[in-house]
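Dear support,

Our group has been running a series of protein-ligand predictions, and this particular one with 4-nitrophenyl phosphate is the one our PI (initials K.S.) wants archived with full inputs and outputs. We had some confusion internally about which version of the output was final, so please treat the block below as the authoritative record. The input we submitted was:
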Amino acid sequence: MVCLGNICRSPLADGLLLRKIKEQGLDVLVDSAGTANYHIGKAPDHRMIQTAAKHGTSLEFLRARQFTSKDFQNFDHILVMDQSNYHNVAKLARHADDLKKVEYFLHYLYPNQKEAVPDPYYGTLKDFEEVYQLVDKATDALIQKLIHEH
Ligand code: 4NP
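Confirmed final output from the archive:
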């Protein structure tokens, strides 16, 4: 899961998916990263931690890192939160097969619509709650896909 800072949207997707994968007994490697280097090593934004905690998911153990072209080697699916993330990740693709791994995170909820998870960083707690609701639905859809793939 990839966003810009790796402190709001992608850590939420990471933590929620990890929790649901455990609940379903699936064996899937999940991680998140940001395209930017601003927040490397930091815990998620406290507003994201607070919103996820309210819904029973803990995120405080996660630490931000930057997406690298090595991630194409280590992961089968690279799921981006918005169009800008898509372009930044695509620039690091080494060949056409890397690019084929890149998909919009909301694709499983809204197929082929290039729908974005809005960036809540400059927003209010209400924006964080909206991101939570969207990411919760999208991770449910993703879990269904993973169950059918296994
Ligand atoms: P994220 O949100 O990409 O969902 O982690 C952001 C976090 C930090 C910044 C922008 C977006 N920033 O400009 O520092």
